[in-house]
């Protein structure tokens, strides 16, 4: 342990709540973030390739924020650039103080035949750690988590108790420090509370969590895209303006033509509020966004859409609902083999799938059953390279 003396008081500089995410569009950069509570500490990250003696340095920045009667620690963000694909790196934060060492694996170069395993979860909260334990113990071993929103649920406590953001960061560090989590904002990240003078939406999220939005031409960290292995992943913001002529709309309109399905055959979209939902809770909350964007999803043959918000599990067939039968007034989803499969995973569940050129295996596991028991499985067939009917064999 290290510390330093300031005006007669010995201050421990402890670095915690470490988390990483992808730092660019292509997968050759990583954003490392961590918090020091009592003193600023070092902004430097040391990193090196496995089996290498060459120690490299990257320098970041730190900031703090206030929310009502809460003041954050010093939140550090440092981007490590020009990494090699498919390589194990070690990295160290707290240089010169309380040094802590972690590691991560960079993805393979984007391409159609590079298998890659994603985990998916959302609405995690911090009531218990069964979901993370379940994910860690799964033999498929996910390499990156696609997180579909709702982090700490601090807004459900008096005055949006931002200490809950700190406890959540500690709670997930055992995973977030070692593999990238791709962040999606949910309604519990809004933290809009004018009754206590807090009128800037997403303030805690924007200070604590970075996304590589600028590398995909986005103007805000809430919507962006990345390539990772064989997948092109588009992250959308359910609680930012998305109608015509808004920044998110104009960005997405320009984003779809950039997707090269020869390079990244899998096109995946993340959002928080589901467009298709048969539960009573949150029923049709995503409807206006669906009306705006669903034709684009079908035209561009999106393979799968993952959402949270509803604290349950549900998946659709390949359906769409933007072509109406004017003659008899029918207005309900119809089978559409160019449409995505919609999966709601807001129960803190996970997804592990082997991605190849034409097939992806999807499995959902209930916490109650143990990680080796599949609650639901299916094979997804790629909409570009193998667009056959992958509907279930039964009517369930």
From TrEMBL:
<dbReference type="InterPro" id="IPR041792">
    <property type="entry name" value="MPP_PAP"/>
</dbReference>
<keyword id="KW-0408">Iron</keyword>
<protein>
    <recommendedName>
        <fullName>Purple acid phosphatase</fullName>
        <ecNumber>3.1.3.2</ecNumber>
    </recommendedName>
</protein>
<keyword id="KW-0325">Glycoprotein</keyword>
<dbReference type="InterPro" id="IPR015914">
    <property type="entry name" value="PAPs_N"/>
</dbReference>
<comment type="similarity">
    <text>Belongs to the metallophosphoesterase superfamily. Purple acid phosphatase family.</text>
</comment>
<dbReference type="InterPro" id="IPR008963">
    <property type="entry name" value="Purple_acid_Pase-like_N"/>
</dbReference>
<keyword id="KW-0479">Metal-binding</keyword>
<dbReference type="Pfam" id="PF16656">
    <property type="entry name" value="Pur_ac_phosph_N"/>
</dbReference>
<keyword id="KW-0732">Signal</keyword>
<dbReference type="InterPro" id="IPR004843">
    <property type="entry name" value="Calcineurin-like_PHP"/>
</dbReference>
<feature type="domain" description="Calcineurin-like phosphoesterase">
    <location>
        <begin position="118"/>
        <end position="313"/>
    </location>
</feature>
<dbReference type="GO" id="GO:0003993">
    <property type="term" value="F:acid phosphatase activity"/>
</dbReference>
<keyword id="KW-0378">Hydrolase</keyword>
<keyword id="KW-0862">Zinc</keyword>
<dbReference type="InterPro" id="IPR039331">
    <property type="entry name" value="PAPs-like"/>
</dbReference>
<dbReference type="Pfam" id="PF00149">
    <property type="entry name" value="Metallophos"/>
</dbReference>
<feature type="domain" description="Purple acid phosphatase N-terminal">
    <location>
        <begin position="16"/>
        <end position="104"/>
    </location>
</feature>
<dbReference type="InterPro" id="IPR029052">
    <property type="entry name" value="Metallo-depent_PP-like"/>
</dbReference>
<dbReference type="GO" id="GO:0046872">
    <property type="term" value="F:metal ion binding"/>
</dbReference>
